[in-house]
Here is the input.
Amino acid sequence: MIKIFMSKLFLIFFSATISMMKKYNITCPSGFPEFSPAEERVRQNWLAVIRGVFEKNGFLPVETPLVEREENLLAKGGNPKEMYVLKRVQDDDDTSHSGNALRFDHTVPLALYVARHLNELAFPFRRYSIGPVLRGERAQKGRFRQFDQCDIDMIGSGELSLLNDALVAVVIVQLFEQLNIGEFFVRINNRKILTGFFENLNIKSKDISAVMMIVDDLEKIGATKVLENLVKLGVKKDLAQEILNFTEISGTNEEIFKRLEQIKGGELFTEGVQDLKEVFSALSAMNVPENRVKLDLSIARGLDYYTGTVYETILTGYEGLGSICSGGRYDDLAEVFTGKKLPGVGISIGLTRLLSQLFDAKIIEPERSSPTEVLIITTSPDFMSNALEIGAKIRGMGFCTENYVEDKKLGKQFDYANKLGIPVCVVMGESEVEKGTVQIKNMTSGEQTEVTLEQLEKGLKNILK
Amino acid sequence: MIKIFMSKLFLIFFSATISMMKKYNITCPSGFPEFSPAEERVRQNWLAVIRGVFEKNGFLPVETPLVEREENLLAKGGNPKEMYVLKRVQDDDDTSHSGNALRFDHTVPLALYVARHLNELAFPFRRYSIGPVLRGERAQKGRFRQFDQCDIDMIGSGELSLLNDALVAVVIVQLFEQLNIGEFFVRINNRKILTGFFENLNIKSKDISAVMMIVDDLEKIGATKVLENLVKLGVKKDLAQEILNFTEISGTNEEIFKRLEQIKGGELFTEGVQDLKEVFSALSAMNVPENRVKLDLSIARGLDYYTGTVYETILTGYEGLGSICSGGRYDDLAEVFTGKKLPGVGISIGLTRLLSQLFDAKIIEPERSSPTEVLIITTSPDFMSNALEIGAKIRGMGFCTENYVEDKKLGKQFDYANKLGIPVCVVMGESEVEKGTVQIKNMTSGEQTEVTLEQLEKGLKNILK
Here is the structure.
């Protein structure tokens, strides 16, 4: 009764406050979402795995600023329509802020990094970068304006061995084996094969990238539509069919290589086949299972700057997600900044997008939101000092440990543990403190056992390990 | 000779290219520096330790967007002169980009986060946030426009037990014990004590924060200057001396508490002393050594929003660095957004600034830039396939492993290892491949031993573990 009265009083007070308050739109700005703590815990685990695999393979950590000169970003293909330029509210006095913009990927910052440190770097330069990039795209489901990218690249000075292309594929395989989200495979192709094949069919040079883009959509739009689009582009119907047949060649890697040998292509075509053979033979030297790396003549990667090997990664059974990790070989990282030929090969994972897809598809189901394994609660604040001491001890045993220190009823304290998904409560009351014991409550089973302080560590391990 | 000729040719070509090239200013924009890979490795280790300690103490990970609504940032004390507002180059068509700005700390985003999720959160809500914030300050040595902050906060709904203030101090102690950069201690005070003492001296309310700011500078500017500044503010000379004497009270925590008992203060003063006693008695219940947590009446933390406990952390012998981790208790996190009382207590580490100070002062000396522990090199590309196989094996043993796959002389390959500080090279030549052995070269001692593949793991462990 008193409670109801109080809460009514509170409501009146609250409404009065509300009406005096300026209204703020407290939602996240469009395109800038946030993960829940439970999802964020998954993200942190992923970041640790990804970073670990990159380091296991000898990539150096490079963290470039979020902000670069606008002019430099535009020099390497930045889309001015999507780039966020920085302004200060009052920017009359200090010109050192002007002309800066937020990075939209890790590749342009890498080009600038290499240009800045050209003479100090050991080549081939292998680096990884993990962090947010920002694009002012139209916000829509699954498309964010801020998202994490996890990139590795190997950069050669003047030249770069093709074996690096195999090493990159190995990193993808290690990554998704460790991330452990199910069966997957890496599709590998070489754009020289496609370009060479198209050239040999007398497709005009200016149309080759358009043809590449159309072919790249095969899985998404289907064979009929690919044919249609090719014809629309001006490719003769029989040639279009030949292109389609070519990209649809299937079989084991060995079978596809055999088919490729029978096809008469030009010099570039032959070079591409040779390159791809070298990559696959390196993969087999490293004992990468054939079901993890598949030659696939239909992948092209729409982006223009790839010139050799291209990669896509497919989660078996979830082909609809598209490629979950992609990349390729390029000839020119930073000529515009350095005047030097710096070929490279690299891959990128769009972490934010991928995780949000995996959460949506329930391929990953985040568990509890708190890292706490053990919550210490007391029946009365009188035992708080004992509880704090025990809490420090349990933390010392290596468990993530939290003391509940507010003066609330036991039920409220258990509610707190349940809301956060904390698996174990250690309960201390008068009788326990007198006897030098504690109650261990398994929050999943509901089971409760009284143990001495000597038995405590073992008791916790029984539940938590 | 040919080499010289070639390099001249190259120079001519290079100059020609240069002269045709547009010149780009490729330096980092002012205030947006980057760490070297060796420094970045230190930073990554620190981040892992910091995150680990936060989770060990049951803080939930919360990662808010880099971007918030400008209006919301300004509502909680954002300095409009330093805030970076986002614009797109062409921003006529899509208004959803306007009115957004980059976060300048983690506190306002926390306030917004709590406001957004008020009804889902379990209170007290403990969260950590680690990541970059951006401020358009004047760039100067040690002041950056983008820097990482690592924050924890505990937020109560309506009220929050004082014991949380002790738990926060424990986190600071754990943090710097694990970061292991030398002796340190946490200075603790309570602003109620200072405010109460000043009120009792009849300092006008409007002057109290100014007095607080002056006293806070004691260590930086010295006693004489503090007296001068107090008198300048209008405080009578004898009162100024009394204030100075008060803040200079020293001794063990127990001695200082005894002195405080002898001082006649007002109600607020007594409350502050009581609060601080409760915090220190909780610290001793948790067995925090007295040399780690020191009552210090001179610290106030300039910022106005602290209302109770305040913390600073001092690295012994490097007092000149100032506080390396600070924070305090505040009454109001998000009333402007929620209409509710949400008191909190928290701390923040300015990671970028701190690390850059520690590097400059050589308190931390970054070691090698590459994570690679073992580099596999060959005397000829003929043995590459064997080398790749061995590389995959060594990586499987758990070592960070890299194959050098470029076709370069042995000397160049060793240069590469030395430049990156890689500690071990595994060398494979004709005789090794024939015999099924490899050479292990300890790059530090120069020692080289031939081992069979069976002895390889042990041989590597001998050097690396």
